Every structure is written in C-alpha cells, then in structure tokens.
Amino acid sequence: MIVKIAAAVVGGLLGWVYMRIKPPPLRICGSPGGPPITSPRVKLDDGRNLSYREWGISKNDAKYKIIVIHGFDSSKDLKLPISQELIEDLQIYVLSYDRAGYGESDPYPKRTVKSEAFDVQELADKLEIGPKFYVIGLSMGAYGVWSCLKYIPHRLSGVALVVPFVHYWWPCLPANLANESFKLLLVQDRWVFRVAYYAPWLFHWWMNQKLFPSLSITAGKMDIFSQPDLEFLKSLPPDPDGTQEKASQQGVYESLFRDIMAGYSKWEFDPTDISNPWPDNDGAAHIWQGYEDKIIPRNVNRFLSEKLPFVRYHEVPNKGHFLPFDATLCEEIFKTLVGK
Known about the structure:
Layout: H1 2-21, E1 41-43, E2 49-56, E3 64-69, H2 84-90, E4 92-97, H3 113-126, E5 133-138, H4 142-151, E6 156-162, H5 175-182, H6 187-198, H7 203-208, H8 227-235, H9 243-246, H10 253-263, E7 285-290, H11 298-307, E8 311-316, H12 327-337
Parallel strand pairs: 3-4, 3-5, 5-6, 6-7, 7-8
Antiparallel strand pairs: 1-2, 2-4
C-alpha cells in the first residue's frame, strides 16, 4: 500500500512538473483562434511562412539591396529614421521580415542560430532580390548576422551589427572579459541567460515562476537603460497602430523565449572561427556600439573587432542601446554599409 501511495505521489509530482515546464499551445497566424494574416508572406521549403515588408525603392531599380533583421520583442514593422531623400539618393531597397515566431511568421520550434541564416537566404531567393545583398542586424537580431557570416558568406555584400547581441559563453572570450562583462548585467538577467544556456528545457517555467525575478526588460524594470536611452523612451509617441503588440501576438514563448534560447544556446561555431568573406576588401562587417549602452557590454564587441580583421568598429559616445533610432546615426549606418 505504501509503495502504491508513493508511486501515486511521485507520478502526480512529475505530472505537475511536466505541466509547469511544458510550452503553451501554438497560436499560429491564420489558424482557428489565431491572429489574422495582414501582411505578405512567403512559404519556405519546410512549409513555414515568413512575413515580410518591402520599403525603399523598387528592387528592380535598386543599386543596393538590404535585409534588416529586427531585435528582441520587435518585428518587421520597426521604423528606422532614414529619410526618403537618402533612400532615393542611395538607390536602396530594404527588406525586413518577422523572424520565426514573431509577428506573422510561423513559429519554428527547431529554430537555432544556424537556421536564422538559411531563413535569410531563402527569403532573399523567394523574393528574387539577387545573388548578393547587405544585412543589418539590430540588437538580438545580430546573432542572425553572425550566422550569415558563418553559413552564407558568399551571399553577403556587407553587414552591419548594430548594438549587437553578445554571448557570454563564446569560447573565444577570455574568462576575465566574459566574467567582467557578465557581472555588468542585473542579477536577474544573469540567471535568465544561465537557464537559457544550461537548462533550456526549464526556460518556460523560469520565465513564468514567481519565486525569483525574471528578465528585467519584460518586467518593465528601467535599471537596464542608460540616461540617453531613458531620454529616448520619454520622447516616444504612443503605438496607435499596435505594431508593438503584434510582435509577440503568437505567444511570448514562440517569439521572445525561443529568441533567447536560440541566441544563448551552445553555438556550432565561434565568431573568431569565421573566415573573411571579403578577401579582396570589397566588403566589410561594421559593429556599431553605444558607449553608454548598459544592455550590451561594449568591451566584448571591442574585443571581437580586434580579433576579426574584416570588422570595422564604430563606438558612439553619449549613446545607448537605442542608437539606431537616432536619425543622423541611422543614416550614417546605411551610408557606411554601402560604402558612401
């Protein structure tokens, strides 16, 4: 009898644990009960749909074609402050898209750092933008740029990693640099990234439990922002068209949580393993870093730029994580990327 009771208790406990760590059901756009489809999409070879937005001049008339990879809790609808005059002057076509699980792009439970590059490549091919293109990755979206540099370098005319994501467990980082940079983060964020790296199967529970503080940015904690970032946030208008809410409309697990788990997974490569995609100096990778950025430690990106000869490092004083939303700097990023 005691054995049966113990087995029942253990079984019940395991069932409770499973339900706590089990991801929630998918809410796929266009499915019954899911959000509506309001944007153009392409169907990838594996059956998934990627939602996209084209802006700038016509791709058939463009001299430069640029794919923008959005950051954490963002989407293809992010508004970069580049003037129509400069767009026409540079003759650029811009393609932005919702990464897997974000906005109106189908979730992808198998998403990895590697899959990000092949999503970019297949999107470019489905939309026939040509054999080569530029890529800009913002914040968390920068791990997609590292992936492109590793897996599809032959498709790249140049790239820009803007206030780019860093991984504190990259083997190339000296231990003292990794530790010092990691300790600059809030304690609660350090734990989130540890769980994503060491125990991703526990991540859903960790992000929803109430025993310990979770990710600061999703909890609305303002300590992570520098003074320049706080000033920027105060100047932001409301979101009348609801584009911010649409970013995670298919569920935070498939968008935000999987983004963190993919980025902080164990990578198949190290950034310093990447060979120069432009041995003839006909292209470059540009890292743009705000000196006052409290979200991304600048010393890691400085280190990478010193180790990789094809990287050009741009550190901007008095700017934080929202550097790309400064109109002057945003236009400078685009001009530098295409060599103007």
